[in-house]
Amino acid sequence: MKEGDFKVLYFHSTPLVNDDCSRFPTFKASKECMFPGLCVEIISLLADKLNLNLVPVVVNHRNTYEYIQNGTVYGILNYILNGTVDTIASAYLMNDYFDEKFNVSEKLFYTEKKLIGLHQKDGFSQYFGFFGSYQTTVWIAIGLSLALQCIFSVIVHRVEKELYEDKKSKWSEVIWRIVRLQLLQPQNCQSKLLSGKCSIIIFSLAQCAILMGILSSYILARLMSPEHFIPLKSLGEVLRAMDREQVYFVETLHYPLLRQTLIDVGWQQGLNMTEVLARNPIRYAKNDEEAMTMLNNNEAVMMRFDTDDFYFNGLKNCDFMTSFDAIEVLKRGFLFRKDYELLPRINKIIEQEELTITRLYSKYMQDYKTKKTCRRKGRSEIGIYPYLGLGIFLLVVNTSATFVLIFELITHNRGGCRQRKLKQ
């Protein structure tokens, strides 16, 4: 015989209250529904331990909101305040924000606040990935090695001609042969001196064959899996980028606390965020769907807890990235109206079932999170952009070569005219 009713409000909010199952809400996990929701399972555990009949009150839409501003309660929190439900199947921050109107239970679990943004692709790497694959220092090293080999080959060639009295070649032809060797297109790269032969063998083996062979594989790997730029490392870095107007924050209308958070963190970083926000204001969206659309911009950033519905929806999108380190780690608990008579018993059960709740938390924040996180294709394809960049490069080189050709023709014609005048 049940001792009474335990009225709980359920709304769609992954992973706390999932809607993956055929019935919403589904109170307990089964083979047909392995992940009904983290808070759903904890609420069912409490109801069983309290010997209460679970009475669900369902809100069948995702765009719910709850906040307190200037002492006024907004959104679904009023369901608790007016006695419609005893609690909500969601976990709330354990701070003084709710103290005036509500009581928060003992800690259920910790939650991490993280940044969400779009994977940013560098335009240079998209079009010039063939050249951007190496660091500048690698390009310098390759160039210096090639230059030293050309200089040594010219010296060896001059000595060779003096010793064997062969027909002397131009130094430009010697350099051209070494450059062709570098490009794996050798043409009569010979030497009668042992020193010349050794230098060519070492250069062709070490740089042309081994080094360039390894690096060519690296180019392919980089083109197949291009790096993403400007990772979201910390809130301080994002605020400094915000000061430079490189990024801006997106938020929904029903979360008024973001501005004060940015001002407080900015003060710790030595930034006047009031002035920064005047130049680079927060962009507000009407709901989560609009915020997700606004986030599809390289400059947009959001801040969310890792148990939020928006955060989990972002994980499904391979174009979104989240910060690795947490900005903040806070405790969460269930929310009840002031002086709720069953709260002492609920707190005692939460303490007794700490291990069970921890297992449930791991189940959703590890197994379920892995299941929902986007996985990129195992086989990647090289897009057209690197070839467009290479085409632009070839166009520039050929245009330059055309101008050089015109200059050589003019020089040659002028030289021919002078010779004809001298003969006359």
TrEMBL record:
Keywords: Membrane, Transmembrane, Transmembrane helix
Transmembrane segments: 138-159, 200-221, 384-410
Protein's name in the database: (pine wood nematode) hypothetical protein
Lineage, top ranks: Eukaryota, Metazoa, Ecdysozoa, Nematoda, Chromadorea
